[in-house]
Amino acid sequence: MNPSSTDRIEKQILLRAPRTRVWQALTDADEFGTWFRVKLEDPFVPGERTAGKITYPGYEHITMEVRVEQIEAEILFSFRWHPYAVDPKVDYAGEPTTLVEFRLESVDEGTLLTVVESGFDRLPAGRRDEAFRMNSGGWTQQLTNIERHVAG
What we know:
- The protein is α+β, with helices and mostly antiparallel strands.
- The protein contains four helices and seven strands, in the order H-E-H-H-E-E-E-E-E-E-H.
- Strands 1-7-6-5-4-3-2 form a seven-stranded antiparallel sheet.
């Protein structure tokens, strides 16, 4: 694989919902937690961290932590995190993070949501491939989750 294909995951979905609705589902921490399946303790604020317990069955022992990078109203929401940080015996704090970007674009049918997670090539070699593979599948599932959430 060439570096560009291992460094970033990019997924898109057409959501049949207004851009404002999708934006709220992404940037309201409680709503984000509903479809993403995490109980976040604090709102999303640029430059700040928020964390919370995963609520997805089998992963409830995991705390997800993100540091919000950018919130550009109805255009871009981004954060950094430690991808696939699921082993409670491992301290991931010393590892590089990946950047997750949610970009919104209005289209005739609703809102085009693009999710890009980049920075996998900087992860420790021993867990890089698994983190990439698991998050690639994870984003596919999460796009289905947000689609159901904004449609309902």
